[in-house]
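note to self: dont lose this again. the chain is below, predicted strucutre after it. 182 aa total, dont forget to put it in the shared folder this time
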Amino acid sequence: MHRAVIAALLALPLWAQSASESPQLASMKAFYVMVRTTVLKAADKLPEDKWGFRPTDEVKTYGQMLAHIADAQFYICGVVKLGDSDKTSNRSVEATAKTKAEIMRWLNEGFAYCDSTYADLTDASAGAMVNFFGSQRTKLSVLAFNTAHVNEHYGNLVTYMRMNHIVPPTSEAPPPTPPAKK
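---
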């Protein structure tokens, strides 16, 4: 594993683990926070004039990819909140938001929505079953899918950034280690 990724994992503030929260739930939250933080850093790093960039005509632009991630936060975390994929609403961010400011607003709102979903989750409710794309899944597994989905698209963003000669957040040099106290 790349040293910068390990450093980022160790440096991220984790949600405080309550006495009733299992390490499993706390670990899932920590991975979600890691990918959320990384995607937001990637969104900030690419200048707005590059948000229309796409490697080929068949794929989404950088901005569309981030808008897609925003839409997914509302949809997937909505399944966990509401218990059924048929009850969630589509914000249509990808179809309607065009500027970096609009997409960033929705991206931050989408992540805030998922933050509140995690905040409401307990060990007991994490195991509750919900309808996700026609299959019964635990709420925690749906949130694991969300983290994997966002991380998958972060991989797309990395390629777009590299093609524009921008170092992705997970490839940045780790912060210097403070000197040891004597």
